[in-house]
Design brief:
Blueprint lengths: L2 H19 L3 H7 L5 E6 L6 H5 L6 E6 L9 H13 L4 E7 L3 H6 L7 H16 L1 H6 L3 H21 L2 H10 L3 E7 L6 E7 L15
Parallel strand pairs: 1-2, 1-3, 3-4
Antiparallel strand pairs: 4-5
The chain binds cobalt (II) ion.
């Protein structure tokens, strides 16, 4: 059997087992989606949001891209953020990076990955430059990369706080809380590296005074 056919077979088994456990499962889930969390994670196949947090379908609204970036003109990310914050009314937005991230590893090199990937990875190089003093003091290449993973998550949390979507929700509804997490592929554990409460100021230049 081809790999993709196996996926379809496994889907049938999974759907049947869900109904066996709970006959009303799909009927209930089909009616409403009310997740309290928006997850912005890396596309890496080893970091699946639901599995690593032991959550069920319906619990986490998910957006994933290479190296979990929050780019201020990414219409895809911003639509997800807008919908999650303004319609689903999520209480928490989590940016989850992971050690050993291929995107971060690529950005730390001087290799030309060609136009599209270079464009995407550029913002990780910017994170390196903002924190060059700290990163350059680290001599071990693996530790350097791990620290860049953490700082990248922190910068993406800042990028969320810079949006009028987040600032308006903070002003009107004192939510969502923003979290920066890093996942370890080695032990399966999540670690908090950054956290900001509603209303936190990043820098006055980003604050909209007439929301
Ligand atoms: Co990654």
């Amino acid at each position: 059997m081809k790999r993709f056919q196996k996926l379809l077979e496994e889907n049938k088994k999974w759907a049947a087992s869900q109904v066996a456990k709970d006959p009303g499962y799909f009927k209930r889930l089909a009616k409403v989606q009310a997740p309290e969390v928006l997850w912005i994670g890396c596309s890496d196949s080893r970091v699946p949001a639901n599995q690593i947090t032991n959550t069920e379908p319906g619990e986490i609204f998910v957006h994933r891209n290479i190296a979990n970036l929050v780019i201020n003109n990414d219409v895809n990310l911003l639509s997800v953020l807008d919908f999650a914050v303004n319609t689903l009314k999520v209480k928490h937005v989590i940016v989850c990076g992971h050690y050993g991230c291929g995107g971060v590893k690529a950005a730390i090199t001087n290799h030309d990955f060609k136009a599209i990937l270079n464009m995407w990875l550029r913002s990780i190089k910017d994170v390196y430059r903002f924190h060059r003093d700290e990163i350059d003091r680290i001599t071990d290449p693996k530790k350097k990369e791990d620290r860049l993973v953490e700082l990248n998550v922190q910068e993406q949390v800042f990028n969320l706080a810079k949006t009028s979507i987040i600032q308006r929700a903070w002003q009107n509804e004192q939510r969502p809380h923003l979290h920066g997490w890093v996942y370890s592929l080695n032990n399966g554990l999540l670690k908090t590296v950054y956290e900001i409460k509603p209303g936190t100021s990043i820098d006055p230049i980003y604050e909209y005074g007439d929301l």
